[in-house]
């Protein structure tokens, strides 16, 4: 076989290596091989990962709700709540949430996350302005309950506060009014914690009582007198002496324990989340004996009755959020 024939056989038998720069009969090239396989870019993210996502709440089962208000005896809402849901929302909603501010957060962003107004957050956290939040700061999100009032000719802040058993300073703060400023007729004001009617005074028993959902709540301050029935956010007022032991109405985890500040009128207060999702709140305390994250048993002493915050005398403001207040 001639050299020419042998060379032709080898060319047919040996596949050519296609190169980016040149090709070689035996594939000994310095250039990179061209591949028809698409390049795969590796990533640690799953294919369906969202581009942007917000960690809305460090306590995901504790979700804020729309502001529930009353006007002329009719429940209203400033948030996306159907009229048919309002009555249930007042008694069975209103969970308190805890949120840690992140880089880039604005007060309006946070308000949207929790379906509340920016003023609700300002008022509940003693913040002077929307720009006063900082990364790492912990905010308490308190859905507001109260009365909505449309200003009429001759109305004053003091008169409105008296009419609804509210507080003039709270009305000014929540509605971001200038002290002493004249009210414009037709303006709608919110009276935080305002009430349309007061219940008669009566003695509170010490036995456990059933709430909606089947849990039992005991009297958080035995020996006290109920001086105001259901008002604000499903609350009662229990009057007694400063220093009277305040006990957990049921076992659960402490999610809020504020030991100073106005705190939206609550003063020193505690919130406990129970296993069935119900939350109980204890306000105007003179002392707080537990911290956030503490697990407490039913009847355990958590603080002492006092008159901090918005209070006309020593009493315990006791709320049940997410269930019926049996007292």
Kindly provide the radius of gyration, computed on alpha-carbon positions and rounded to a whole number of angstroms. Answer: 32 Å
**CATH-assigned homologous superfamily of the largest domain:** Glucose Permease (Domain IIA)
**Major β-sheet annotation:** 8 strands, antiparallel
Q: Could you name the CATH class of the largest domain?
A: Mainly Beta
Instruction: Output the CATH topology of the largest domain.
Output: Glucose Permease (Domain IIA)
- Unreliable spans are 5-66, 72-92, 198-206
- What's the end-to-end separation, in Å? 112 Å
Strand order of the largest sheet: 7-10-11-19-15-14-13-17
Keywords for this structure?
327 residues; alpha+beta; Membrane-bound Lytic Murein Transglycosylase D, Chain A; 14% helix
Describe the SSE topology:
Elements: H1 3-13, E1 68-71, E2 74-77, H2 86-92, E3 97-100, H3 107-113, H4 118-124, E4 138-141, E5 145-150, H5 157-163, H6 168-174, E6 188-192, E7 202-203, E8 209-210, E9 216-217, E10 225-231, E11 235-239, E12 245-247, E13 252-258, E14 268-273, E15 279-285, E16 287-288, E17 295-296, E18 301-304, E19 315-321
Explain what you see.
The protein has 327 residues and is of the alpha+beta class. The chain folds into four domains: 1-34, no CATH class; 68-143, Membrane-bound Lytic Murein Transglycosylase D, Chain A, CATH 3.10.350.10; 146-192, LysM domain (Membrane-bound Lytic Murein Transglycosylase D, Chain A); 202-321, Glucose Permease (Domain IIA) (Distorted Sandwich). 14% of the residues lie in helices and 25% in strands. It contains six helices and 19 strands. It has helices at residues 3-13, 86-92, 107-113, 118-124, 157-163, 168-174, and strands at 68-71, 74-77, 97-100, 138-141, 145-150, 188-192, 202-203, 209-210, 216-217, 225-231, 235-239, 245-247, 252-258, 268-273, 279-285, 287-288, 295-296, 301-304, 315-321. The strands form five sheets. Strands 7-10-11-19-15-14-13-17 form an eight-stranded antiparallel beta sheet, with no helix packed on it. Strands 2-1-5-6 form a four-stranded mixed beta sheet. A three-stranded antiparallel beta sheet has the order 12-18-16, with no helix packed on it. Residues 5-66, 72-92 and 198-206 have low confidence and may be disordered.
